[in-house]
Each structure stands twice: as structure tokens, then as C-alpha cells.
Write a structure and sequence with these properties.
Blueprint (H helix, E strand, L loop, with lengths): L4 E4 L12 H11 L3 E7 L5 H15 L4 E9 L5 E6 L2 H16 L10 H6 L4 E6 L6 H13 L4 E5 L7 H15 L3 E3 L11 H12 L21 H7 L4 H12 L22 H16 L6 H17 L2 H16 L4 E4 L6 H6 L28 E5 L3 H12 L4 E9 L2 H11 L4 H8 L13 H6 L7 H13 L3 E13 L10 E3 L6 E6 H6 L5 E6 H17 L13 H8 L12 H10 L4 H10 L2 H5 L3 H8 L10 H7 L9 H11 L4 H12 L8 H13 L4 H16 L4 H20 L1 H10 L8 H10 L3 E3 L11 E4 L5 E4 L10 H9 L8 H8 L3 H9 L10 H9 L31 H12 L9 H4 L3
Parallel strand pairs: 1-2, 2-3, 5-6, 6-7, 9-14, 10-13, 15-17
Antiparallel strand pairs: 3-4, 4-5, 8-9, 10-11, 11-14, 12-13, 16-17
Helix pairs in contact: 1-2, 7-15, 10-11, 10-12, 15-16, 15-18, 20-31, 20-32, 21-31, 23-31, 26-27, 27-28, 27-30, 28-30, 29-30, 31-32, 32-33, 36-37
Amino acid sequence: MPFVELSATSNFTFLTGASHPEELMRRAASLGLPALAIADENSVAGIVRAYGEAKEIARETGSAPRLIPAARIVVREGMSVTVLPRDRAAWGRLCRLLTLGRRAAPKGSCDLGFADLLAHAEGQEMLLHPPARSSGGWQTLAARLAAACPGRVALILAPHYAGQDRVRFERQALLAARLGIPTVASGLPILHHGARRRLADVLTAIRLGCRVDELGRRALVNGEQRLRSEAEMLRLYPGHEEAVFRSAEIAGRLDFCLSELRYEYPSEISTGESPADRLARLTREGLVWRFPAGVPEKIAAQARHELELIGKLGYEPYFLTVNDIVRFARDRGILCQGRGSAANSIVCYALGVTSVDPEVGTMVFERFVSEARNEPPDIDVDFEHERREEVIQHIYSRYGRDRAGLCATVIHYRGKRAVREVGRAMGLSEDTLTAMASQIWGWGGPGALTERRLREIGLDPNDRRLWLALQLIDEIQGFPRHLSQHVGGFVITEGRLDELVPIENAAMEGRTVICWDKDDIDMLGILKVDVLALGMLTCIRKAFDLIESHHHTSYTLATLPRDDSPTYDMLCRADSLGVFQVESRAQMNFLPRMRPRCFYDLVVQVAIIRPGPIQGDMVHPYIRRRNGREDPHLPSDALGKVLGKTLGVPLFQEQAMQIAIIGANFSPEEADRLRRALATFKKHGNVTELKERFMNGMLANGYDKDFATRCFSQIEGFGSYGFPESHAASFALLVYASAWIKCHHPGIFACALLNAQPMGFYAPAQIVRDARAHGVIVLPPCINASLWDNVMERDREGRLALRLGFRQIKGVAEEEAQWIVAARGNGYRAVEDIWRRAGVPPATVTRLAEADCFAALGLTRREAQWQARALSGDRPLPLFAGDMDGEGIVEPEVVLREMTLGEEVVEDYVSFRLSLRSHPMALLRELV
């Protein structure tokens, strides 16, 4: 029987394993191993990547090693056991065991006891790792495990490659005989190839917080702890060949495969109504709500068509889950907006998931929910960034933490982190590392530090230690460092999620995450719902509230006036500071050239200033054709159907993928593989093969080589940052909404934008300056008028003005501001009143004085500061705690020098980062 490695460690045992799961699978295939078990310490985070690589190897060669899912469980009593589930039920018990340990410990740790292992042992094959020194306590636990799991426990014989392995094997074989269990051979590899030994030592040094020079015996003795073939293992185990072959015997009892994992949507059955009936009823009710004057027949027909397709694919529970989340937000007054594939559908419009009117939308429903592709729909929902946590906790509350969890995000080594951590391990000085990191832009990547750049910062590229460090820095790029939480991707299940995948604590309190990232769950066909945060939704909701409060008109995203000419005129002037998505300098530069006049123009505007179209040189041809300076050229009738509405120029991610399918004869699976390869190119992977396939396919179909090259460049751009048409349409609605508010209510827009900070490109000073340029009256913070938030109020002439709030003042906490407002009564009459009545510390009173908040009391900034500095102690003494009514101590009058305008402006910027008195440059013009 052939040898099977049953306990390999990947780099998802962070800072220990020195090979990717994919590399281990590739190496296993090249060595002719029939199967391989990836068993990371208290984790199964890397096995999906190995599973995906096995499928890719099978696609390329026709066969591949079988992945055996496993985990090496380390319990607090000091015992280490590789656990291999025999079937799907045993896998569920392994996941629950890992969940138990992870939930009982802080993020990144696992706390399990031997009793926990025994409680979840049913259906598991157990491989005992012998301790360095066998103790009575270990043997007692091993005997208990062997008694509890008869016929399912074996003792691992693993070489140490130190010249004493034969003696060790004999001793361990005797130990196994005393325990009444067989032995099994395993190399316990942490490397796929011996060349990774140096990197393994660097990882150990990073984990231990020391230099490689200081590792001593903790470093690997050699590069032998690698994946081995059957022939090599037999050579290492003379006299114990049966232990080598027993690995295949054990593997033969392991029937479980990740392909058996079946994800089930929450059924969402309510009051006896089936999901299909409930979705149809909610859609009908929603259409009546959306179209009170009567549902157009075209819309009703499309709704019936969508419901029929959703029913065929069984996706009703998914849409109902999203509807439940959105309904909760709507009931709480939390503004939300759906985007993503299926969000631009009439069913989603009726459910209130999206506010993009289907009559102005541009999507074809089958492009996203396709019977042919049988792919799950993709709906992302953005919520106000200040209130998204309410939605997240609602999901946990409704479904339970054993049925809902956030996806993980794998944090990988990138340029600067790799330089700093590897450099420290290699003993480079901190100033050297700072200089090296300063030469890396963005993500960095292998080869980012060239010889020329090193010489420019005074380093010698020929220095052996530096040269070796650079090699290791390049080698560690793309290695996983730790797990973090996804920005909002929720996996929700009908049954127990913790029997599908382990759940663990996140660093943020109240959050729990699974150990797989979005690519892993996509590989396994597990659906997620993205619950995302968007600052502009907070701004728009606050603006709607202010409009209703001051103008007594209620708006929603769906009821804003359409095709408002003044709004489009404003955008054509590039007057878009603070407007969602079109506020950057690049967008402002493009707006007068694009001159948007309708909603679809905004869809294009949102999508065109992106890496894909820019990298593919699609921007200038599009604008020339739009302005009539170039005839739209459609490469063929087939591609004309894809590119017609964008004048023959591919601008959206969907178009890029359709070009690969139609123009280069890619199958949908190949197009998806191309997208994935490009998306993960920075981490690992190679697109050369797919690029050649694309170019040859385009040329074979008669397309121009230059056009084919530009198309692939655009697809490449989309790989690192794609922007599909469906997202662009959803974002375009927010562009229009924010632009409409800015155009018709500039003061309210500025107020809401300031209250939603931090967000966007611009500082408060720029937002206020832009508001004043639009005729908005802006009033400074006032101790007797300001609230925590910025507010709109009537000035003495009855005009609506923007009053800056205490939130703009640096160093003033919200709780302190609320106490000041609550204790204000009929107003404060002196600086000391705030200290006595509101109970805020003197430091806060001083910050208010520095911000000139006491001007309404007739005090200059310096006079207020003088009085604030006289306060001492957190509280006034009991005798002086009440109002003094004129009985206070009279101090001699002090005459303070009046501040110049320049000094006032400087103090304004120091205190609240803007000034209403003058622009700083205006003070310098007199000197020029």
C-alpha cells in the first residue's frame, strides 16, 4: 500500500509552517503521493486552498492527490493529537471542538482540555504525537484516549534527523505496544521543499521575537523536515515498514471530503408560509408601495419572470434573509442601499433592498442570477457607517452565534511589513529598515527593492546579510500573517454554522468570525451576505432629517426629484466637493469633459475613473466618441451587443469578462478562473498561460492585436480593482442624491457632511469654505448655542445658518459636550459656570476657551483662557459648588494684549482645524 502523509503543517500554522497549502499539494503530486492531510495547529484555515489546488491539478493533469482534512489539536495538558475525521458527522464534531477552544480564548488563541478532545472523539482517527520525554501523566492520558477510541488511535513515528532516529523509533514502538496501539509513520513536514529551511528559521525568529542569530537549538538542524515520497520514507524507517504502509490503511478509512459540505440557506419560513409564497407576497406588496399610481405591466411582467427564475434555483430564502436585514434597518431608521449583482432587480427594488428604479436601471437579471451558471446571487447592502453595528448585532441576535458569523480576511505579508519583520529577524538596524521601507510604494511585492534604490539610500547591495535579507523578504511575500475579520461578509446557515466551519472570536468585542475567507467560501459554494458601512449614507440620512425638520419635506433615495437640471449643471461645472464618488481631483477634472445629463451618464462617470479603464486606455476613446470627435467602432456584431451602450469601449467588469467569453472563446469557467487569477496575482499565481490563451483566442477570431492587448490590460486592471455595472448603478444613485442635496440645500449638505466625519477626501476647513462660497452663513462654536453636532439655526435676520458644534473642537469628548448642553438651562454667564454646573474638567473648559466659545459672553479668547486657567481641581469645593450670585472673590483686573488677526486664525486652526475669520494665505498677500 502506498505511503500517505497524514500530518503536514502549512503556513496557516502562522509563523511556523513555511509552505503554502497549495505548494504542499503541488509537491505531493510531483512525489506521487495518493493523498495528503493538511493538519495545522488548532486550525483548518488553510485546507480550502489545498482543496482548490487539488482541483486545479486534476484539471491540468487528469489526477491529483486527495486532500484529507485534518487538524493538530494541542490541549493544555501538553498532549498533541492529529485529528482526522472519517465522515461528515465527524467533521462537524471537529469544527465544534475547534469552536469551543477558539471561543474560550482571545483572538488568535485556542484553549482546549483533554476532556474536550474526548467529548468530540467519535468518528475521528487520532494520531498521537509522542512527547520529547515520555512522562507518566502523558502515558495516562494516552491510555485513556486509546480506551475511549478503540481501533482509532495510533502513535506517530517521526524522525528528528539527528542521528538517533532508529533508537527513538524502537523506544516509541515499545511505548505504542504498552498502550496497545499501532504506530504510523509521518515526516511531520513543515516545508514542501528543503529550500525553505532559511525562511522557516526566520518565521521562528519572528514568532519568538528574537534574531535568527539567537535561535540556537530552536532553529531547524537541517532542511529535512519536508514532504517526502514513499521511497524516502521507507529508507528512513528500516524495520518499521509497516508503520509507513499503515498510513495508507488509515487514509483508506477517511471518506470525508470537503465536497460533501452542503450549505443550506436559512429557510425563512414564517407563519406557515413557504419561502416562495412569502417572497411573492412581499414582492406584490412592495410593488404597490413603489408604484402607488399603479404597477406598469412591463414591471409586473419582469417581476414575475424574476420570481420564476429565483424559484427554479431555490434562492427565495436568500432574498428573504436580505429582506429581513433591510427591513430591520428601515424600521430603525437606518438608511441602507443594496448593490451588487442581484440588487439591481425589480424584486430587490420592491423589497426595498435597492432604490435604483428599474425603469432607469441598465441590468439584465439573468446576468446575475443565471440558471445556466447555477451561481448564487450576490447582494451587498451598505448601511450608515455610524449604525451598522446595530445591524450586525441584530443578525447575531436573530440567527444565533452558532448559525451566523463574519468571514475572515487573511492578512498577508506585503512590502513594508515584510521588510520590517524579516529585517529585524535578520539583525538589520531600525534606521536601515526605515530607509528600506520608505522605498516601497503601496503593496510592494517581490523585487520592489532594486539595487539602484538601495544605493540611493546609502546601502551596499553586495553586503551578504543584506542580500540574504532581501531574498527572504521576497520569499515571504504573500505568506499569511494572521486572520482578521472581513469588512462585513456574513455567512448565515439553516443548521449549525459551527458544524460547517469553526467559529472564533474577533478582536472587536461582540464579533465572531469563521476561519475561511471570501475566496474559500466561494470555492465551497457557501453564500455570504455583505453588510457594509458607507459614510455617505450617514450623511444623506442626516441631510434628509434636516430637510424634514427645517423645510417640512420628507425624502427618501427613491423619491428624490429625477433628472434635475440644476443638479446636472452643478456637476458639469465640477462643483462636486463632498459629493459621493465624484469629489476626487481626477473626477472633478473629468466631469466638465463628460458633462453628465442623465442617470446613466453618472453610472459611466462612477465607473470610468478606475484602474481598469485607465490602465486599458479606455477613457480617452470613450470621451472622444461621446463628444462626436470619433465614430464609435464596434469590433464585431457579437461584441457590439456587449459594448454598444458604452460606444464600443469596455468600461465595466461584466463587459471585460464577456469579451473573454465572446471574443477569445473562453468558457464561463475559464473567464471566472481568469478573474480569480488576476484578483490573487499580488499574493500568488501566474496569469501568463491565461494571457496567451486570451490573445490567441482574440487573434483567431480576427480581432486586432492592439485591441486585444488593450482589452487584456483592462481585464488586468479589473483584476486588482474591478467595478461592475451593477455597483456603478447603485453608487450613481448616491452620487445623484448627494449632488441634489448640495445643489438645493448647500448649508444642510455641509452640516450633514461635517456630522458624518471622518469620511471623504476633504477636511472640515475645505467643506466650510465651499459652503460659504455657496452663500451659506456659517456661525462659530458658541457655549450658549452649540450642540455636540453641527446644526442649522435661524440667525437674527431669519436666514438659515450653519452653527458649528462642539464636535469640531479638538479634545472635547461627546459625553462632556452633552453635559454642557444638559446643564446650560437659560445660558452660562461666566467661564466658571461651565465647570460648576456641567462638572466638566478644567482642561475641557480651557479647550473651549481656546476655541473662542465664550465670545457671546463678551469675553475675548485670551480673557476666557485667563479665567479658565484659574480653575483648579476636577470639582469645585463644596462651599463654592453653587452659584455665587455676586458673592465671589473679586480679583484685580488684568489687561491682556489683544490678539492680532493672524494669531486668531492660527488659534482657530489649532482648536478646530478651520477659521471663519480669514484664509491663512490672505494674511500673506500683503507681504508679497
